[in-house]
Amino acid sequence: ITAPFADEDKHWFATSSSRNREDSWFKSLFVRKVDPRKDAHSNLLTKNEESNLYKIQFHNVKPECLEAYNKLCEDVLPSIHADKYYPCELVGTWNTWYGEQDQAVHLWRYRGGYPALTEVMNKLRQNKEFTAYRKERGKMLLSRRNQLLLEFSFWNEPVPREGPNIYELRSYQLRPGTMIEWGNYWARAIGYRQHNREAVGGFFSQIGNLYMVHHLWAYKDLQSRENTRNGAWQQEGWHEVVYYTVPLIQHMDSRIMIPTKASPLQ
């Protein structure tokens, strides 16, 4: 081989080797080593000692019925929340402002987990006022869906707060098998998002759409939201969390919500 061709071969092999290393590095972002576990992911991520179960409801309301729907909910839901006979609490209730229009979102907490949920369901079947509420509500809805959720151990537990506030529900559909990884990164990331008391609650699904995460945030207004989110990028370490969690997401969605009169989160 003459010298010119030898030089070309060296250049080709060097370039090929460099590309292989780059490809290997790029693929490593998406290939995770999985350790064998003897416990469910939910037990590793949630507050086991409290056993709180959450239910989130999404009701798509006929546009002409939204005002009547809100009034109906205001008349019935707070009474269930206040009655100690039912082991459940209304965490918050909202109308979507930006996102899906003419939509109501309700978040309930069941202290005691699945037994508490079952107890509430059985008792409400005997509640004539609630039965009438459901019948009247059904006339106003286009569709509805719900999910059962657990809360991440490193997030705040949602507690009532005074307003006025707007709320953002950011929902993430994760790639199957990535929930533990998401939790590991966000256990650090939540520290960057506490400065303005914007963090309200963080949850992951158990029944309904699986590998779904919901983060609930509170802001004074849209400009406050913008300033707070921009401020997070000024903190060392936040960009790294975003860099490593984005590949875990299949789909994400954001709702800006306004609390109704009946909501403990104002």
TrEMBL record:
Primary localization: mitochondrion
Residues covered by the NIPSNAP domain: 167-264
Keyword Ribonucleoprotein on entry: no
This protein's UniProt keywords: Autophagy, Mitochondrion, Transit peptide
One of the GO BP terms on file: mitophagy
Tagged with keyword Ribonucleoprotein: no
Location in the cell: Mitochondrion matrix
GO CC field: mitochondrial matrix
PANTHER family for this protein: NIPSNAP-RELATED, PROTEIN NIPSNAP HOMOLOG 2
Role, per record: Protein involved in mitophagy. Accumulates on the mitochondria surface in response to mitochondrial depolarization and acts as a 'eat me' signal by recruiting proteins involved in selective autophagy.
Protein family (similarity comment): Belongs to the NipSnap family.
Protein name: Nipsnap homolog 2
